Fold this protein.
Amino acid sequence: MTRRVPDLPEALVRKHLQEVLETCRETNTRPSVLMLARRLDLTNTTFRRRYPDIAREIGEQRTTPSPSRTGPTEHDRLIARNAKLRRRNRDLNAQLALAAAQIQHLTLHNQRLQEALEATSNVTSISSRIQNR
């Protein structure tokens, strides 16, 4: 049993083709018939059978070398920015761990100094003398 899907208007298919081509330009990838067929919820074979001219255009786009870009694509910039943010996050986490360790060390050191001070000083506070009377 074969599922019969109605033919889509060629204008709609070309609109989706332009969107796929634009996406491929932004991500610096090559377009494929399968990419467009999936977008239209068709199988690769069905798409090639119903739209042979568009499939041929996509094939020509794949075989022609893409013009070299003068700079990084938006996708490349996002990957670089993500890597930079990950490095910064790792550095900040390391600094936070170091700061927490320093605070713990200082707290323990302060406690030892406080205990040493109390042990060595035999000074009675004035308030305790007044209460004893």
